[in-house]
Fold this sequence. Notes:
The chain is α+β, with helices and mostly antiparallel strands. It has helices at 2-17, 118-123, 277-311; strands spanning 26-28, 31-37, 42-50, 58-65, 73-75, 80-83, 89-97, 105-117, 129-139, 146-153, 156-157, 160-162, 165-167, 169-179, 189-196, 202-207, 220-229, 234-244, 247-259.
Amino acid sequence: MRKLFLLATGAFWFLFSAHTAYAGFGITPPYLRSDALTQGSVFSQEIVIVRGDPVEDLKTDVSINVPGINQWITIDKGNSFILPKGATQFPIKITVTVPKDAEFGAYTGNIRIRTSSLKQAESGVSIALGAQVDVDLKVVSEIFNFEVRRVELSEAEEGHRLWWLDFPGKINFWMHIENTGNVPASPSKIKFEIYNNAATTLLETVESTNSIERVEPFATKKVLATLPTWLKPGGYLIKFSIYKKDEIVKTGELTLSVLPRGTIAGYVGYGFEGLPLEDKLSIVIPVATPVVLFVTPRLLRRGRKTKKRKSGTDGGGYSASSSVERPMARPSASHVVDLSRRK
């Protein structure tokens, strides 16, 4: 009875003297979810441990209970670590590494985070508090998908002419892409319809000219699309369309400022890749034509020589390149000596 009284007294004292160490303890978000994992993919999610009044260090233990895939899941801080005094928020990163031979299907379970006071553990009386991360993962076949979180448009400089070549200005269009699929993904193209400032007259329709960088699965990254414009300095309205393969996934409107050439420090315009097709051909054809005229006759002569060597024969009707031995000529009768009558 006395032991029970002492234990109850100790627990009462601990709760009322050390309650501030545990006040407001929790985690956010309380789940680990993905329905777009595939074989060989890697998925990470940050979980933040929150404490209202962190007056002491806390020992923290993490246990993983997701049947069949415990070995896929790792914690960047390890399965045992210290929640430091003074930190109201303590982030940990949970990473799921799916084997290349993983079976398709759903995997559920939980990850438990248990904390305890180091001081009370030394005294022999300890009260542990914890939280649970619900795990819901699905391994499926390839999913190509992304979300456009934000877009940005830089000022552009006007184009210029060099000899007969018409170099356009370059518009830099930035996109913050979140890959929500399980394979690398990015927009297939960007289309701009450029209007006057009052949006009453369509002046240009242009498309992106570069290969847009792909974003890894479950990551968010800022990627660039470049588009040409031949407009003079001024203000314009852009109606943009972002494509996923042949599907438009996002549209919107932005204002574009085109400035005189040389205005923007460090600005790099288009080179050969930005020229119109007719300008590109005007360079390629004059350069390529002499090369073709010079090389083609030589290739033809070489082909005829090769053909002659393969089909050529000597005067006896045998191929000059044949390795077959010719039969030896029979001696004439005047050169035959009969040795049978000699003694």
